[in-house]
Design goal:
- By secondary structure, the protein is mainly alpha-helical.
- A hairpin with a 2-residue loop joins strand 3 and strand 4.
Length: 385
């Protein structure tokens, strides 16, 4: 089991700022997740007491330490999104993507890299990040090629953001260095807070390591997830570059499989990155499917599936693969999307059992799962007609 060593203070600071920016008690966020998973709250709270005690303690200490920074926190890291969406203006400004951040980050090096980035490159990166804000592909439904400062601003002004958001993002971009300084102020104070708890965090990391070592029992983690999760069985081909597990302390319920592939050959360019939230355990499993978990909240399942279907790009994907299979590259060409965008959308569809994925060499053949779609339609009929 290859776990990223040490504490990535850079990543954890942004995760904590994002968690605190939700302006909801951590306990409420956790209880909401337990309800969604139909988990046993009592068993969960008993099993995860050391982790929960730490999270609740950090929450109180953060609120006290950052009291004078509350306005900045709300502006840069405030979010009204649900637990599946973590983006905020701060993460856009910082060009942040935690899923591919696997090196123990150095704050000063990261800060210097952003400050010294050429202005044109920053504009391009900012607009590119913004195209995937909150996992929703923006503007025209297709990727916009950004090659100039004018392109970046044009993208914002012609996107489907609200007028208020367009003005906000335009101002953030034009004055990005002064806004970065504010974000770095928040990050520096947050990192200093976390560093005072280094020994406690490392103990929680060790606890995580011991738990998953018992679960894996020497088995490769990727093979383990394939074997124990029906929805992932056909979606995770072998990766010759292996895997890296990142422990997510302040994204406590995160779970993902991420990697880089060559857009043309589909060859792996990186190991699997497996971000796993520290609160996954026997009483709140890593994943579930409606077919193999007793007591699941079916209403929540169908509502989430319908939410995924309602997205324009995902609906078009389902329409195309209802009577035939298609690869991600074929869908990208058909819908005029990037391979990365299609991979994101098909991943969400697969997670909600709306498509099947069958390995075919180095590619996956995607087809709609009409059983789940039929169940969603039946659910609507029963509830609304």
């Amino acid at each position: 089991m290859n776990i990223q060593p040490g504490i990535d203070y850079l990543s954890e600071s942004i995760a904590l700022l994002t968690l605190m920016g939700k302006n909801e008690p951590v306990k409420k966020i956790i209880d909401s997740r337990l309800l969604k998973e139909s988990a046993d709250p009592k068993a969960f709270y008993e099993e995860q007491k050391p982790v929960l005690d730490f999270l609740f303690s950090i929450e109180k200490e953060f609120q006290k330490t950052m009291k004078s920074e509350k306005a900045l926190l709300d502006f840069y890291f405030g979010s009204s999104c649900d637990e599946e969406h973590w983006d905020n203006v701060g993460r856009v400004l910082l060009l942040w993507e935690e899923f591919t951040h696997t090196d123990t980050g150095d704050f000063e090096a990261y800060k210097t890299a952003l400050y010294e980035m050429e202005e044109l490159q920053y504009y391009i990166e900012f607009a590119t990040k913004l195209q995937y804000f909150n996992d929703s592909f923006r503007a025209y439904g297709t990727a916009q090629k950004i090659s100039s400062k004018e392109d970046a601003l044009r993208f914002i002004l012609h996107s489907d953001f609200s007028e208020r958001e367009k003005l906000l993002f335009s101002e953030l971009l034009v004055n990005y260095k002064s806004h970065l300084e504010q974000c770095f102020t928040l990050m520096k104070k947050t990192i200093a807070l976390l560093q005072t708890h280094e020994s406690e965090i490392l103990q929680l990391y060790e606890r995580f390591h011991e738990y998953w070592s018992r679960c894996f029992a020497g088995q490769d983690p990727v093979a383990y997830f394939r074997e124990n999760n029906e929805s992932l069985k056909d979606a995770i081909p072998d990766n010759p570059l292996g895997h890296i597990i990142t422990i997510e302390l302040f994204h406590p319920f995160m779970c993902g499989f991420n990697m880089e592939k060559d857009d043309k050959t589909e060859d792996f360019l990186s190991p699997y990155i497996l971000p796993i939230g520290i609160l996954y355990c026997d009483s709140c499993p890593l994943r579930y499917t409606k077919d193999n978990k007793e007591g699941i909240n079916l209403t929540a399942f169908y509502l989430e599936a319908l939410k995924q279907i309602s997205h324009k790009n995902r609906f078009e994907i389902l329409c195309h693969v209802k009577d035939q299979t298609a690869t991600g590259s074929e869908l990208a060409e058909l819908l005029q999307l990037t391979n990365a965008t299609v991979s994101h959308h098909t991943g969400l569809l697969h997670k909600n059992e709306l498509v099947t994925m069958t390995p075919n060499g180095t590619q996956l053949l995607i087809r709609s799962n009409k059983n789940t779609i039929s169940e969603c339609i039946q659910f609507l009929r029963q509830e609304l007609l």
